[in-house]
Amino acid sequence: MDVATRNRIPTDEIGADLPEIVSPDQLAQLLRISVNTVYAWIAAGRLDGCFRKRGKHNLIVRARAIDRIFNGPEWR
User: How far apart are CA 76 and CA 63, in angstroms?
Assistant: First the structure.
């Protein structure tokens, strides 16, 4: 077993202390990126299937977003 496989954390455990549905601000804090980056990813379609827009609020499914970010297709 190589180091990458041994040290891998399942995506459902990342941010397990947060609720299942998070705001862009909470996702940004979890990933240690800027909130503007999260909004840019949403606008670019990189988080399609991971969020819903309710009024002016974006509701992000934490586990799906993390899975998409770490295991999804390569971003260009």
Answer: 22
Distance from C-alpha of 50 to C-alpha of 63, rounded to nearest angstrom:
8
Q: Nearest CA to 50 among 30, 73, 71, 69?
A: 69
Q: Name the residue among 63, 57, 71, 33 with its Cα closest to residue 41.
A: 33
> What structural domains and CATH numbers belong to the chain?
3-71 (1.10.10)
In the chain, helix, strand, coil percent, each to 5? 40, 15, 45
pLDDT tens string 27-56: 999 999 999 999 999 999 999 999 999 999
